[in-house]
Design brief:
With about 350 residues, the protein is of the alpha+beta class. The chain is built from ten helices and 13 strands. Helices cover about 30% and strands about 20% of the residues. α4 links the parallel β2 (about 90-95) and β3. Keywords: Oxidoreductase.
Length: about 350
């Protein structure tokens, strides 16, 4: 359903929302210099916008001189449906974050459903603060959780056959420079049972590992001080490190070739609407995503069927915009925040 917003609509909506909490806000004359709309359009049921504080929004250079005093001004001067050419009206799937997780998700989605409209929002166009490029690009299989072990094993196989997955028009993908070198984890006497249990789980799923006694550790790693060490586990295959920037570039280029749309933009909130079910239950649902474009520094509403949170350290902040951890409906917050 298309959302039609006028200056009158926005003024009425946000004066009502913030006037009770902020006595410094002066009500705006709704008849002054506003576009005239039909009564039916003005009386449309109002929606509640959930926004992060504009002071905490990722800073995109302003292109106008409009003073911003509060959230009401921030929305009133930024929200528009006159879109710059690269902002779509709707998408099937909106992915927040275009680094390795977001780009990989987009790639796998388009592989399985080529007709899906997939859009990625990435506010840091050069990935200067992305966790992907700030990491060492390590790959290991030594986890306790089965799902983590399985993902690592799949990741190793994926890298072995990366040309089959990420090549474009039979050209070799960007070389990720994977260096095979196992991880060595060591434990004290208290950790022996845990190491043995994890080893059984890991090897049963296909991980190639080796348990080592203190004498075996001294022989294989003569430089290692084994005082206090009673057990070690070493990855003999499918562990090592790679160039994370190269892998991100390969995923991004492949996703682009499959039709994924990347936008230099930031999610700043959601348009929510109350829905009443047949049993009388009232539920707040996300209606539209509010997108702050770096091209013109304005906010655009976007229809989307699914939103995928791949914002890395900022995933908790994105979750709050959707009401997770800040509402009675979803009281438990996503425990993720930047260091």
């Amino acid at each position: 359903m298309t959302l039609k917003l006028t200056r009158r609509f926005i003024c009425q909506l946000f004066v009502r929302r913030f006037a009770s909490n902020n006595s410094s806000i002066t009500p705006i004359d709704p008849n002054k210099d506003l576009t005239i709309k039909k009564p039916s359009e003005i009386s449309t049921k109002k929606r509640a916008f959930t926004l992060i504080n504009p002071q905490t929004v990722h800073q995109i250079k302003r292109i106008d001189d409009v003073p911003i005093q509060n959230e009401m001004d921030f929305i009133r001067h930024r929200l528009t449906e006159k879109r710059v050419k690269n902002i779509p009206i709707e998408t099937d799937i909106l992915i927040i974050g275009g680094a390795i997780k977001g780009s990989a998700i987009a790639f796998f989605l388009k592989q399985r459903a080529p007709d899906l409209k997939v859009t990625i929002l990435e506010r840091d166009w050069n990935y200067t603060t992305s966790s992907t490029v700030l990491s060492a690009g390590g790959l290991r299989q030594q986890f306790a959780l089965e799902e983590n072990i399985q993902m690592s094993i799949y990741g190793a196989e994926f890298l072995k056959h990366i040309r089959d997955h990420l090549s474009i028009l039979d050209n070799d993908p960007v070389p990720v420079s994977f260096h095979h070198n196992g991880y060595l984890l060591c434990g004290s006497e208290k950790s022996v049972k845990l190491f043995e249990e994890n080893y059984q789980t890991q090897t049963s799923l296909g991980a190639k590992l080796k348990l080592l006694t203190p004498n075996m550790l001294k022989k294989q790693f003569p430089w290692l001080n084994t005082d206090g060490i009673e057990i070690g586990c070493f990855g003999i295959q499918n562990e090592g490190w790679l160039d994370p920037w190269a892998l991100l570039t390969a995923f991004r280029q492949k996703a682009l070739s499959l039709g994924v749309l990347y936008l230099n933009a930031e999610l700043v909130g959601f348009d929510k609407v109350k829905r009443v079910w047949a049993d009388g239950t009232i539920e707040n649902q996300l209606d539209k995503a509010l997108i702050l474009s770096a091209e013109d520094n304005r906010i655009y509403p976007m229809d989307t069927t699914f939103v995928i949170n791949a914002a890395g350290p900022w995933a908790g902040e994105v979750a709050k915009m959707a009401g997770i951890g800040v509402s009675d409906q979803y009281p438990v917050a996503l425990p993720v925040e930047p260091r």
